[in-house]
Design goal:
Blueprint lengths: L10 H7 L33 H20 L4 E6 L1 H12 L7 E7 L11 H19 L4 E2 L4 H10 L7 H12 L11 H7 L4 E2 H13 L9 H8 L16 E5 L8 H10 L3 E6 L9 H4 L3 H17 L4
Parallel strand pairs: 1-2, 2-5, 5-6
Antiparallel strand pairs: 3-4
Length: 315
């Protein structure tokens, strides 16, 4: 979701101030993207998507729009978390898009969740079947939608001097890893006023499947439906050897979602990595990549340097 880049550390403005043309992507199903040419957001059919569709259809459409508008043949791509997953999917499912990327810089890169420590993700993985059945029975298709009530609630609960502000920070940390030093708590009411912004239940179930199976693969519909859809009992894995674009991985020690061993696995699988860079601060967590107070000196200066090296032909 594009707004996460602006809450605390205005990373997009850093690039803009350096003279780069910055385009912010967005994905279907959140509060900023609930319109469709033919489908009604109130109906189940609208919500039948996961990050697979985002990678196969949405991201290529964004890239084509940018390149067609700017009349350029290539661009730099910076993705965080799910924004890295959609990139791997795009390049494996539609490998012709590799040639449109000068450099992909992956922040907190996610593909494998075998060693994921996130309590939230692990809970969803363990209980995904009963939770999925229950939500389907009661007709719930959207997961944690944004609302005016949540925004107002966060203004009260998460503001400075509030006795409950600690609850707000811990609600984030159980998913991402604990790092109070780099959390700008004054911004919490704004953060919770925009996130979570909503997702499809199917999308969340897909995360649980990736964790549960230990494989980065397409959505699992069950043996019978898998055979009808894929021609096999199990969903196909994404072929990461088809991701031939240049890739730089940026990761940290305290990221509970993009755990170091899983990043190493990804690094060894991708065929054209130009570097693997660990953020120096040992408590740097999953959301510090976009929200950390000192993200510029810890991370963003490295990103801009990598862009300059590619532009000069040194990488």
């Amino acid at each position: 979701m594009r707004s996460v880049w602006f809450f605390v550390t205005p990373s997009a403005y850093i690039l803009s101030d350096l003279g780069y043309d910055v385009w912010m992507g967005n994905v279907r199903g959140n509060r900023y993207s609930k319109k469709h040419a033919t489908l009604d957001v109130r109906r189940s059919k609208f919500w039948q998507f996961t990050f697979h569709e985002m990678g196969k259809y949405d991201l290529p459409a964004m890239i084509d729009h940018v390149l067609n508008t700017t009349k350029h043949e290539q661009l730099h791509y910076i993705g965080h978390s799910q924004g890295t997953m959609t990139f791997w999917i795009m390049c494996s499912e539609r490998p012709e898009y590799n040639k449109k990327i000068k450099l992909m810089q992956a922040l907190a890169p996610v593909a494998f969740l075998n060693n994921c420590k996130s309590l939230g993700v692990n809970f969803l993985a363990y209980f995904r079947r009963p939770v999925g059945i229950l939500l389907k029975l009661i007709g719930v298709n959207e997961f944690l939608p944004s609302s005016e009530f949540l925004g107002l609630f966060s203004q009260i609960m998460c503001k400075d001097q509030s006795l409950t502000q600690e609850i707000c920070t811990n609600a984030i940390f159980i998913f991402t890893g604990y790092d109070k030093n780099e959390m700008n708590t004054t911004m919490l009411p704004i953060v919770f006023g925009h996130t979570p912004a909503g997702a499809s239940v199917k999308q969340i179930m897909h995360y649980g499947q990736v964790k549960d199976s230990g494989k980065f693969r397409q959505y699992d519909y069950g043996y019978f439906d898998n055979y009808w859809k894929y021609g096999s009992l199990y969903p196909p894995e994404y072929d990461l050897t088809k991701v031939t674009a240049k890739v730089a991985l940026h990761y940290s020690q305290n990221d509970w979602l993009a755990e170091q061993k899983d990043v190493e696995h990804l690094y060894e699988t991708l065929p054209n990595t130009v570097g693997k860079y660990m953020v120096g601060f040992e408590r740097f967590n999953h959301l510090d990549f976009v929200w950390a107070i000192d993200a510029k000196k810890m991370l963003y200066d490295k990103l801009t340097k990598m862009i300059e090296l590619v532009e000069s032909g040194e990488v």
